[in-house]
Amino acid sequence: MTDELRDVVIIGGGPGGYVAAIRAAQLGLSVTLVEKERLGGICLNWGCIPTKALLRNAEVIQLLGEGKTFGFELEGFTADYGLAVKRSRTVSERLVRGVGALMRGNEVEVVEGTGRIAEPGIVHVAPVDGGEMCLDTKAIIVATGARARSIPGVEVDGKRVITSRHALEMQELPSSVVIVGAGPIGMEFAHVWATYGAQVTIVEMLPRLLPLEDEEVSREIERAYKRRKIGFLTSSRVQGVEPTGSGARVTVQKKDGKTEPLEADKVLVAIGVQPNSEDLGLEDAGVRAERGWISVDERMRTSAEGIWAIGDVTGKMPLAHVASAQGILAVEDIAGLALKPLDYGAVPGCTYCQPQVASFGLTEAEAREQGNSVRVGTFPFRAIGKALALGEYDGFVKLVADETTGELLGAHLVGPEVTELLPELVLARTAELTPEEIARSVHAHPTLSEALMEAAHGVFGKPIHI
């Protein structure tokens, strides 16, 4: 039977769903959050957070390996990968508990179970402890996310052939790994495992590593990975994976048409995601989807009255911070507030490999292909005093601006801590500031952020320190 009428029911407790729940509570709406597994979703449990903990371990190990540069020596140093994984799980669990506390603090009702839309305004829930619930609501938000996509014809068994989730559960470091996919997930695991001593080979179907980034950024990353002896094959396609006595054999067709077998302990499949949109009752509720991705408008409304969708399941941009922003937007629409639609061209993207990569907007090639008259400013970290002092000076900042209007069309950074530098440029884009205004903003010395100022000067051909 149906209980009291709620303002909002959210299906999915990831970074989209739980943020939407908090915002709804802040606006005085009654809200129930349905989550079948753990609050925080993939991001907190099996994605963003535990991988960043592992990356921090890798950073420390890499630094210790450069002792001579910094004037110290270590004898008998060993790195325990299993303990690094345990630390990553501890960090994740702490944050998940924090989200639970936020739910209680905001008086959000959390139901552990699987939700399904019976019709607009009605959500059926199968609780994990058995039974059935029926939730009556004015508005439904679908925030069920996505899961790792597999290679057609290749079975992910969780032992030899794994996804990132399996990788985060492994207590033992594999001696060798083939990583299929050179996007952020593949590149980050390559960095971690190679730092701990594994032999890593990356296979990418497109012509370069991090193929969606600016071409100059990809070239910089490829040089860095070559120096670290991380192998990679680009313009190459996996034809098949078969188990061997100790691992797996990957048959790769290279860009010259020849095939090459690669043998490794593990094969990590990191080729993207597919939506968790099955068994939600979408079709019966009148929610339109394309290949499983739920179609939404700029307010995150679906084709069905009273139903919104946010996060990875929409297929917009599979990023945790996008899901959170969409969650806030959807709830504010439900509450009847005036909205400003998301500018997806200003959404930051980050890859935490070594060196780091951060970007937003159009690459130089995309900007020119769209017919823009473009000015580009580039400045290397090698000319930044703080980068030299840190001993991390590979990479650069690249700004792409419209020559006529001065609009910042894109920013592409590769180098030390660029994931922390990018927000200044995102704010500049959002506030419609030009490179001239960035250049004339005084940046503290010595800081890495001076590279942003110098690249802005470079848009006009007038950088100071090169």
Task: Please describe the structure with a list of short key phrases separated by commas or semicolons.
alpha/beta, globular, FAD/NAD(P)-binding domain, Enolase-like, domain 1, 466 residues, 3 domains, five-stranded mixed β-barrel, single chain, five-stranded parallel beta sheet
Short description:
The chain is of the alpha/beta class.
Please outline the major beta sheet: 5 strands, mixed, barrel
- Residue share in helix: 25-40%
Number of extended strands = 23
CATH class of the largest domain: Alpha Beta
Low-confidence sequence ranges: none
Q: Determine the structural class based on helices, strands and strand pairing.
A: alpha/beta
Main sheet: strand order? 1-2-3-4-5
Tell me the distance between the termini: 72 Å
Instruction: Work out the count of structural domains.
Output: 3
What is the CATH H-level superfamily of the largest domain?
Answer: FAD/NAD(P)-binding domain
Counting DSSP H or I runs of 4 or more residues, the number of helices is 15
